[in-house]
Specification:
Blueprint (H helix, E strand, L loop, with lengths): L2 H12 L5 H13 L6 H8 L5 H12 L3 H11 L5 H14 L10 H4 L4 H14 L5 H9 L7 H14 L4 H7 L5 H15 L5 H13 L9
Amino acid sequence: MTGQDAEAIRALQGLEDSRSSVRLRAALAVGTTPNPRFVDKLVERCAIEPEFFVRDMLTWALTRHPVSRTLPALLREVCSEGAQARSQALHTLSKIGDRQAWPAITRALLSDADDEVARSAWRAAVVLVPEGEESGLAMVLATQLGRGERETQLSLSRALVALGEVVLPALRGATTDPARHVRTHALATERLLRDPDAGFEFAIEEAKRVVALGGAGRKGR
């Protein structure tokens, strides 16, 4: 065993430490000296790591390794039963940005019952979508309008806005949805597309006024 291998093994052992500061340094060490043999361990740790900033470092460490090694491991992980495993794998795929991963971004993931998984899938989809398939993605994302609390709705609006003008047909279709909260979210997202500096809270409040005055669709339930 080389000295470099011994150092990497010590770093991997550090990922199991009870102290988050030690785990953070360990993830930094593994990413600083990439070793393809340790990709599976990094992916495995992502699925159970409780601290956000350590998970972020684990993702960075994975991006430092060859795509040929990380991609298969991450694609397996998006099918995991664990929500955090799916979410972190999708987040890492969005950071790697290799469009070979696009087929793994299924409609099931884009509408996952877990908000964190769905949000990660939305972000990954916008990064990975092949040229020419943006409008199809927009139609799928539009089915999630009105979902969840403000943070989730903001994530979806950002994903739709990132796709650009191709989302307008999907948004305009949603403005006639029977549900008031769906119409409101669609109008707010359309406003953000036209004026990115408007701010989500302002766009939502403005959309609520429009919907209340009957300016979009029919009265919701």
